[in-house]
Amino acid sequence: MIFSHKILLWYAQNKRSLPWRQSTDPYKIWLSEIILQQTRVAQGLPYYLKFINRFPTVEDLARASEDQVLKLWQGLGYYSRARNLHATAKMVVNEYGGVFPDTFKGLLGLKGVGDYTASAIASICFDIPEPVVDGNVYRVLSRYFGIGTPINSSEGIRYFKQMAREVMDVGQIRDYNQAIMEFGAIQCVPKNPDCQGCPLNQGCVALQKKRVDELPVKQNKTKVRKRYFNYLVVIDSENRTLLQQRKGRGIWQNLWEFPLLETKGNINLAEMEQRYNEVITIEDAPEIHQFNQDDIVHKLSHQHLYTKFWIVKTDSYMGNGIDFGTLEAYPVPVLIADFIKTFKI
């Protein structure tokens, strides 16, 4: 039995029941694929259901405000995905009359849609024989065929795409692409896979050569940068506080946060009392205390944020402030959302 047939047989017996698998609607498939980029199914599924419930059609999503989309996305991370999601919905409605392109090339023209996502939509929705290559597929192919070429190198990307094309089942591409991704997600997992119970074990080069833990190979990762964030949580005489929206192209673009003092390292209370006016203006001398003694370490892909929250109480009235009780309406990074849930005035 050839590779693709074994994958399809395994899938028929083991596939998970997921809501987007009941449909070939490009909107639902696209939405699920964008949500599941760099996200496990268990984490992404509730978000998919929330989005479908709130925005049943691409027109509904296009009409939403960016704040509404970011708020619903809150906690999933990689917020550029949410902004691209919103931009693409508008593009589909305004430029394509609410109908997704039905070709691989056309799908690639959508914002935030790369080779993998276009292949998934093309094959699942339109039965176009384009192979998908995501992290799960890289792992399956690398191990089964014993390929040591780094999967994040230009050579590796081209090589694995061609290999995926050679082994795919053209006649059952819709099921096959979902099958090989599912196989990598729950059978050929990154750590401690059940190789003895695997239907591909007899032909798996990595298993035969005892290289399962070594494959796939990745080039050295980008060095992780340390950053020190100090959030100033202002509380005035009327229980109003200050929020600001992040601009620029850095992390958390267009999300809201408390006034931020970024420093080169940890600072103490005396230093904060000297420096708070670098980011906020308060007429009186505020009472400041440190909310968390130990840094909250928030890990992003290429940077770790060492964060402290400072409570800044003032008898002044912050005319440009907002009621503290309304904070939950704003889309904020999960780091700040967790603080809001914890802190009580």
UniProtKB/TrEMBL annotation:
Q: What's the catalysed reaction?
A: Hydrolyzes free adenine bases from 7,8-dihydro-8-oxoguanine:adenine mismatched double-stranded DNA, leaving an apurinic site
User: Which residues does the UniProt record annotate as the domain HhH-GPD?
Assistant: 35-186
Which cofactor is recorded for it? [4Fe-4S] cluster
Question: Could you tell me the keywords of this UniProt record?
Answer: 4Fe-4S, DNA damage, DNA repair, Glycosidase, Hydrolase, Iron, Iron-sulfur, Metal-binding
Task: Kindly give the SMART domains that the UniProt entry links to this protein.
Answer: ENDO3c
Question: Record's NCBIfam families?
Answer: mutY (TIGR01084)
Q: In UniProt terms, what function does this protein have?
A: Adenine glycosylase active on G-A mispairs. MutY also corrects error-prone DNA synthesis past GO lesions which are due to the oxidatively damaged form of guanine: 7,8-dihydro-8-oxoguanine (8-oxo-dGTP).
- This chain belongs to the protein called Adenine DNA glycosylase
The coding gene here is mutY
